[in-house]
Amino acid sequence: MNRELIGYLFETKAIRVCPKDRPFWYTSGKIGPYYVNTHFLYGSEEKANEFLTLIDGLKDNKLSCSGEFHRASKENYRADRIYKGTIDALVSYARENLDTDRIDYISGGERRDWFFSLMVADLLGKPHLTLFKDLSSVLYKNGNSEEAGDLNGASVLHIADLITTASSYERAWVPAVRGKNGRMKWSLVVVDRLQGGAEVLKSRGVESHQLVSIDREVFKKAAEAGYIDKEQLGLVLDYMDDPEGSMKEFLKNNPMFLKQALSGDAKTAQRARLLIQNNFYGVSEFFKDM
Q1: Which of 224, 258, 264, 269 has its CA 20 to 30 A from that of 77?
Q2: Residue 112: which region, alpha, beta or left (left: phi > 0; alpha: psi -120 to 50)?
Q3: Considering only CA atoms, which of 220, 268, 163 is closest in space to residue 10?
Q4: DSSP class per residue in 243-288
Q5: Can you say how many angstroms the Cα of residue 6 is from the centroid of all Cα atoms in its chain?
Q6: What is the pTM assigned to this prediction?
Q7: Distance between CA atoms of 207 and 197, rounded to whole angstroms?
Q8: Is 33 in a helix, a strand, or coil?
Q9: How many angstroms separate the CA atoms of 257 and 128, rounded?
Q10: Tell me: the pLDDT tens digits for 167-185?
């Protein structure tokens, strides 16, 4: 299943690798060779964006939105092979690696967790805790929603699309569950970016699980399957070995890349200026005129 899921990630461009001479601009102003948009496993970028639009239009009505999100995701589960395969993989993992009899609730946080958490709750036959960024929560069970009350120490499995540094867990999801006298005992995500999130969760008493870790093997398997070429693979592996050094070397060897970004579209130019202002990769050393 791991190889099949990796295929899903690249087929939907949930993992997207740049051409060898055009790294992606990240929001921070740094650059890198790949993006991860796990919610594209809803079937495609277009379908994922449509579901996000639905979420944004309904999430303020907290007592009715869970039912609508469940309806839409269940309809897509029945129609889309990639989304169904991803949900089935999460459910199978939970059944094989966790004692599901000990799971009292499934939780999912605003917004992208809801792509996956409601259907996992459905298939495991568990009530769903819909968690919001303001730390409020709604209990969705048997098609009905109500404000979550005292959970009386119940055990919760949190389902998410992605974990990086676990900042959302720290800021919102773990406190929201604890605020209702529940205990988040497990987290299961589709993708772990291996940026320290699992360690953060462990320090909070949460056991971390994932279907896929974004490591070297993921990209090697993608290259073997023909999703990326050898040059793209080389760029990614260099980056994984040394994110700062590899991108510094790229900028030194491709001086026009930054200059073109500064005169590009507004978003790209703004990120390029951030790179210069923060002196990422020590650009002031080799771009004296910027």
Answers
A1: 224
A2: alpha
A3: 220
A4: HHHHHHHHHHH-HHHHHHHHTS-HHHHHHHHHHHHTTGGGHHHH-T
A5: 14
A6: 0.93
A7: 11
A8: coil
A9: 47
A10: 999 999 999 999 999 999 9
Q: How open is the CA angle 47-223-33, to the nearest 5 degrees?
A: 65
- Please, which residues have CB within 8 angstroms of residue 273's CB and are 6 or more apart in sequence? 29, 262
Band of residue 97 on the pLDDT scale cut at 50, 70, 90 = very high
- Distance between CA atoms of 146 and 144, rounded to whole angstroms? 7
Q: How many whole angstroms separate alpha carbon 158 and alpha carbon 108?
A: 6
Q: In sequence order, what are the residues at sequence separation of 6 or more whose Cβ sits closer than 8 angstroms to the Cβ of residue 9?
A: 15, 38, 41, 191, 212, 218
Token pair of 195 as six digits: 């940026």
pLDDT digits (tens, 9 = 90+) for 209-258: 999 999 999 999 999 999 999 999 999 999 999 999 999 999 999 989 99
Q: How far apart are CA 261 and CA 271, in angstroms?
A: 8
87 touches 77 (CB < 8 A): yes
Region for residue 188 given its phi and psi (left: phi exceeds 0; alpha: psi -120 to 50; beta: otherwise)? beta
Q: Which CATH architecture has domain 39-217?
A: 3-Layer(aba) Sandwich (3.40)
- pLDDT per position as a tens digit, 7-40: 999 999 999 999 989 999 999 999 999 999 999 9
